[in-house]
Amino acid sequence: MDPRLTLALLGARATTLAARLTRRGGGTAAPGLVAERLDPAALRKLGAALAGGALVVGGTNGKTTTAHMVATILDKAGRRVVHNRSGSNLVRGVLAALAAQSSLGGVPRGDVGVIEADEAALPAIVTAIRPRFILLNNLFRDQLDRYGELDHIATRWRAAVATLDADTTLIVNADDPMLVGVTAALPRERIIYFGMAAAEPAAVDRRLTLDVLPHAADAATCSRCGGRLAYRALYLSHLGDWFCPACGNARPAPDIVARDIRLDGVKALSLSVEATGDASAVNSSLVIRHSSFPLHVPLPGLYNAYNALAATAAALAFGLSPGEVTSGLAGFTAAFGRIERVALEGREIVLALVKNPTGFNEVLRMLVGGGDADAGLATPTMLIINDLDADGRDVSWLWDVDFEILAWGEAPLHTAGIRGPDMAVRLKYAGVAPGRIAAHPPGELRAALLDFVRAAPAGATVYILPTYTAMLEARGILVDLGAARDFWQQ
Question: What is its EC number (predicted)?
Answer without folding.
Answer: 6.3.5.13
